[in-house]
Amino acid sequence: xxxxxxxxxxxxxxxxxxxxxxxxxxxxxxxxxxxxxxxxxxxxxxxxxxxxxxxxxxxxxxxxxxxxxxxxxxxxxxxxxxxxxxxxxxxxxxxxxxxxxxxxxxxxxxxxxxxxxxxxxxxxxxxxxxxxxxxxxxxxxxxxxxxxxxxxxxxxxxxxxxxxxxxxxxxxxxxxxxxxxxxxxxxxxxxxxxxxxxxxxxxxxxxxxxxxxxxxxxxxxxxxxxxxxxxxxxxxxxxxxxxxxxxxxxxxxxxxxx
Amino acid sequence: xxxxxxxxxxxxxxxxxxxxxxxxxxxxxxxxxxxxxxxxxxxxxxxxxxxxxxxxxxxxxxxxxxxxxxxxxxxxxxxxxxxxxxxxxxxxxxxxxxxxx
Lengths: 258, 101
Hints:
The complex is a heterodimer of chains A (258) and B (101).
Chain A: H1 2-54, H2 59-69, H3 72-83, H4 88-110, H5 119-125, H6 131-138, H7 146-170, H8 176-182, H9 185-200, H10 202-220, H11 229-247
Chain B: H1 4-25, H2 33-51, H3 62-77, H4 82-99
C-alpha cells in the first residue's frame, strides 16, 4: 500500500515536471516556428516603411500603423487612402474587404485551438492572426495551445515593427532596385507554404489551381479587373474552397495537410 | 484636413474586429462536413489567389519577378524553408531585373 502510494507520488511529481518542460517547450517551439515569418516580415515591413514615408507619413506614423494593424495588404491600402485624403468610410470598407479573409482564418483557428485557449487569450492573440501565422499554426499536428500561439507571434511582431521603423527611418538610403526586389520576399514565403502541400495532396492541388485561375481572370478580364485586389482574393478563395468542399469533402478526423 | 489618428483607429477597429470576433464567437466545434472542408481549404486558396498574378507586378520588373517566382517554385518544390525561398526569390528577382534592364 505504502509502496503504491510512493510510486503514485513519484509518478505525479515526474508528470508535473514533464508537463512544465512540455509547456516551456510549447512556447519555445512557437518562437522557433515563427522565426522564418519574423525574418520574412522584416523585409516586407521594411518596404512598407519606405512606402509610408514616401507617401507623406512621418516615420512615427508609419510605425504606429504597423503597431496597430499587423497586416501587409491592408496597411498598403490604408496609406494609399490616407495619401489620397479618402473618406473614413472608404478606409473602413477597404480594410473590411481586404481583411475579411482573417475572419475565415479565425473561424478555422477556433476549431484548432485547445480548451484552455479562453476568450481573454483570444482577445489578445487574435490580433496576430495573419496569413503566415495562421498557416503555420494550422500545419501543427493536433491542437494549438495558447503558449504555442503566443510564441509563434513573438518574432513576427518584432520583425514587422522593427522592419517598419528601419524602413521609415532609413528608407531612402537603399538603392531603388534592391528595395523593389525585396517586395518579392512575401510572395516567396507564400509559395514556400503552399507548394509542399500542393505537391503532396492532389485535392488541394486542383483547388489551388482553380483559385489561381479565378484570380487571373479577375485581374485581366475586361469588366472584372475593376474589382479591388482584396475583394478579388475573397471571390477566388471562397469560390475555389466552396467547390473543393463540395467535390472533395474532408473525412472525419482527417487533417488537410500534405 | 483628415486626421491621422482617426484613419488609424478606423483601420485598427475594422481589422481587429474582423480577426477577433469570429475567433471568440465560434466555441463549439463545427459539425458540418461541408463547412469544415471549406475552412480546411481556405488558407491554401487565399495564399494562391494573393500570390498570382500580383507577384508578377511586385518588383516593377516583369522578367525579374518571373525569374524570382520560378526560383521560389523550384526551391519550394525541393522542400526548402520559408526564409531561404523568400531570400533566393528576392535575390533572383534583383539579378534578373538588373540583367533585363
